[in-house]
């Protein structure tokens, strides 16, 4: 039995006896006692269904497959008795909303009591056993066998796994931001997953199951889980009213004290996102971390590589200086050499975590040079220069600045003391993709988003030996819908804002490609230019006429930010 199936059978009845040694819980208590149980009892598969006609029967089967409760009991009502062994756990395919059912051309000679129905639609991707969505868009055709049983049609040859419409998937599953560990910096990195909707206790158990299984392929090599392969959940209790959970683990005795702290931080940050802010972690009867038997997300905040809250208004490069926008629209130069005119600056980026800024300075010879230093202080030249230096982006820790130089990806290490030095980066996976238009490192670390020949791609940043890093496997997000991309920025840990020269000028897409939401483009005039985004802050973008902002209300339009031109380069600290 898989861990997920075992977790699906968690006992949540508060009056039942639990694992040996645990007392029964009073029936009026809000505490939920959960443990891994045996296979859920078979559901009653009888009862009326909406449509007995074969094509409608198969459509209804797809509609009802969206609900995972009780081993997809709603979908099982559409099956014949001979198909009761349907393996619903084999796979989970997410379909676009529009699909149809037709008599299969491979139906042969259908009889009065048997038929093959073909489901035709567009696959957006699949959800793996660890709850991670893997984008793989393409047209799909799946045959389903149906048979007449008495007066009703039933499915007797269902395909393995389930096919779920995107809207149904969103209704029955919820997004989970699971946290894993950067093996080099020993910091936490977020990773998007999906778990079944449910009560806090059930969500907590499914969330820990995700941590046991490890990060998605989108973060493979960039992050690891601190749960060893031998780790198991012995027991768990949750108290939704108090917002607490108690989880006892086994198989973690070989972890060092430092690894135990990181494992505790993974659990605390992840469960904090599903309504369980405090967790008591036990290992073989004692505290996992003796000094802190109860952990919370707030206690572990220093292990999260992401920046603090962005300023209310972004910075902007305009007329050769870095300026700070204000509520009045005035863009006052910042202190120090970035704003006093010492350099003719064409682009800039700042790190909220380290308080540093990097700028591109245009010299009298036409050469562009990358400089860095404290925001408000003196700037130091880096080893990077060229005819075209742009697309600056800081890593999550604030000690590396990346840039695109003459079409090639470059990486500069910026230590707390001492001069900046160039760092090795294997960007061979970018070479066959065409011209690099923009890059953006995730503020929390671990990922890079790339615009190449108008396409948007996302991949992990994988640490190698001797301090080198590599751009890992890249996956293209929403081909055919996100084309002619001009610029990008991370809006949050798992959302990217996209500016395009197309009939969809502004969009927001999840880092795994599952969600794509259009942002109104009212008042914007192509071509679009630089873009700035940050969580909880207005979006900024330049168009043909100047700099515009958007606050995100349903009926909002873009508002022009005064005093800046079409060449302005807005940015929030990264």
UniProtKB/TrEMBL annotation:
InterPro entries in UniProt: GerMN, LpqB_C, LpqB_N
Q: Which domain of life is it from?
A: Bacteria
- Which residue numbers delimit the GerMN domain? 204-292
**SUPFAM superfamilies in alphabetical order:** NHL repeat
Bilayer-crossing residues are none
PROSITE patterns named in the record: PROKAR_LIPOPROTEIN
Give the SMART domains listed for this entry.
Germane
Q: Which is an annotated Pfam family here?
A: Gmad1
The alphabetized UniProt keywords are: Signal
Q: Does the keyword Transit peptide apply?
A: no
Q: Where is the signal peptide?
A: 1-20
Put simply, this protein is called: LpqB family beta-propeller domain-containing protein
- Species in which this protein is naturally found: Pseudonocardia alni subsp. carboxydivorans
């Amino acid at each position: 039995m898989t861990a997920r199936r075992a977790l699906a059978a968690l006992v949540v009845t508060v009056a039942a006896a639990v694992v040996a040694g645990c007392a029964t819980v009073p029936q009026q208590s809000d505490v939920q006692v959960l443990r891994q149980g045996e296979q859920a009892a078979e559901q009653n598969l009888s009862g009326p269904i909406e449509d007995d006609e074969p094509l409608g029967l198969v459509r209804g089967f797809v509609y009802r497959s969206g609900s995972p409760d009780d081993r997809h009991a709603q979908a099982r009502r559409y099956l014949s008795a001979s198909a009761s062994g349907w393996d619903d756990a084999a796979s989970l395919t997410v379909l676009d909303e529009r699909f149809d059912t037709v008599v299969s051309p491979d139906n042969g000679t259908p009889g009065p009591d048997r038929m093959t129905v073909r489901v035709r639609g567009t696959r957006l991707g699949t959800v793996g056993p660890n709850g991670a969505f893997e984008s793989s868009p393409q047209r799909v055709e799946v045959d389903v066998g149906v048979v007449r049983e008495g007066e009703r049609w039933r499915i007797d040859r269902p395909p393995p796994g389930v096919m779920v419409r995107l809207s149904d998937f969103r209704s029955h599953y919820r997004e989970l931001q699971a946290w894993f560990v950067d093996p080099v910096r020993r910091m936490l990195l977020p990773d998007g997953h999906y778990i079944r909707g449910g009560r806090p206790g059930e969500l907590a158990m499914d969330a820990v199951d995700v941590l046991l299984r490890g990060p998605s392929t989108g973060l493979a090599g960039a992050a690891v889980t601190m749960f060893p392969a031998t780790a198991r959940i012995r027991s768990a209790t949750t108290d939704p009213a108090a917002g607490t959970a108690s989880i006892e683990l086994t198989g973690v005795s070989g972890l060092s004290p430092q690894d135990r702290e990181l494992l505790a931080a993974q659990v605390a940050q992840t469960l904090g996102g599903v309504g369980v802010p405090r967790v008591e972690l036990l290992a073989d009867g004692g505290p996992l971390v003796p000094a802190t038997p109860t952990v919370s997300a707030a206690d572990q905040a220093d292990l999260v590589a992401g920046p603090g809250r962005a300023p209310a208004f972004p910075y902007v490069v305009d007329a050769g200086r870095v300026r700070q926008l204000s509520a009045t629209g005035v863009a006052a130069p910042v202190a120090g050499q970035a704003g006093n005119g010492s350099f003719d600056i064409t682009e800039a980026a700042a790190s909220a975590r380290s308080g540093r800024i990097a700028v591109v300075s245009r010299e009298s010879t036409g050469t562009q040079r990358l400089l860095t230093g404290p925001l408000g202080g003196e700037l130091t030249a880096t080893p990077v220069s060229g005819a075209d230096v742009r697309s600056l982006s800081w890593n999550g820790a604030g000690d590396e600045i990346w840039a695109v130089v003459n079409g090639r990806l470059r990486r500069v290490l910026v230590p707390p003391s001492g001069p900046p030095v160039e760092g090795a980066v294997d960007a061979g996976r970018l070479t066959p993709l065409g011209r690099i238009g923009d890059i953006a490192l995730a503020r929390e670390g671990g990922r890079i988003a790339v615009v190449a020949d108008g396409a948007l791609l996302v991949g992990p940043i994988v640490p190698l030996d001797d301090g080198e890093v590599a751009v890992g496997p890249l996956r293209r997000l929403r081909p055919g819908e996100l084309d002619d991309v001009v610029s990008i920025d991370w809006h949050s840990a798992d959302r990217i804002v996209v500016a395009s020269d197309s009939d969809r000028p502004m969009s927001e897409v999840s880092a795994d490609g599952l969600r794509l939401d259009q942002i109104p483009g009212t008042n914007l005039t192509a071509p679009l230019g630089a873009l700035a985004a940050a969580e909880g802050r207005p979006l900024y973008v330049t168009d043909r006429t100047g700099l515009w902002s958007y606050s995100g209300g349903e009926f909002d339009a873009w508002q022009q930010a005064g005093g800046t031109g079409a060449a302005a380069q807005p940015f929030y600290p990264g």
